[in-house]
């Protein structure tokens, strides 16, 4: 895609700090470095996000994820890792080329957090929602 910063990185038009590359995917350090080692994994083929991925692109991209995550954890000495994917602006996507964030975690105050709300589950509503989603998956 013409104005896509990640496509320009893939094409070598913009420099990056590569950690992994093959014919299908590229992994490089995120310039924001939310935590030390924050890495992005992208398919080389331009696709907006996971919601627009075909099965083959998803398989090749996500198949590389565990290897890169293990190497990242070993290289940084991180205690754990958040693996995050934002789809569309409302979910925090700012670059509209599919990418997966690998964010090494060192301690609870290391610069990244996800806050979940907890409440008493409504199992009837959950069951109805699961049924609706299942119907869509089957199509």
Automatic annotation (TrEMBL):
* Tree of life domain: Bacteria
Q: Which CDD domains match?
A: HINT_subgroup
* Domain HIT, first and last residues per copy: 5-113
Kindly give the InterPro entries that the UniProt entry links to this protein: HINT (IPR039384), Histidine_triad_HIT (IPR001310), HIT-like (IPR011146), HIT-like_sf (IPR036265)
Motif, Histidine triad motif: chain positions? 97-101
What is this protein's name?
Answer: Histidine triad (HIT) family protein
Which species? Streptococcus loxodontisalivarius
